[in-house]
Structures are given as structure tokens and as C-alpha cells.
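Write out C-alpha cells for PspC domain-containing protein.
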Amino acid sequence: MKQGFRKNRRDGVIFGVCAGMADQFGFDVLWTRVGFVALTLLGFGLPLLLYLAVAILAP
């Protein structure tokens, strides 16, 4: 049985959200962080709000 999304505090830098996403989808954590920063710069801060929401709500 596959578990739901979990933050990865072991490999995480701030809250472990990007590391958890990298684990969930099988990506390298470096490219997940680079993609997040690019989306934040292009998305006028909306990805940052989503990041904070996941950091608060995800186990």
C-alpha cells in the first residue's frame, strides 16, 4: 500500500516539503528545489503560499 505525501525532514532544508515531493515523485531533490524557486519567481509568490500551506498541513 502506498502512503500519502509526507515531508522529508531528514533531507529537508527548511520544512522538508521539496524533499518530500522529490521522494513522492522520484525526482532529485536539487531539481525539485530549482523548479520551486523558478515557479516562485514566475508565479508572483503563489507557489510560496502553497509551500507554506503544505508545510503546515502535511505530516
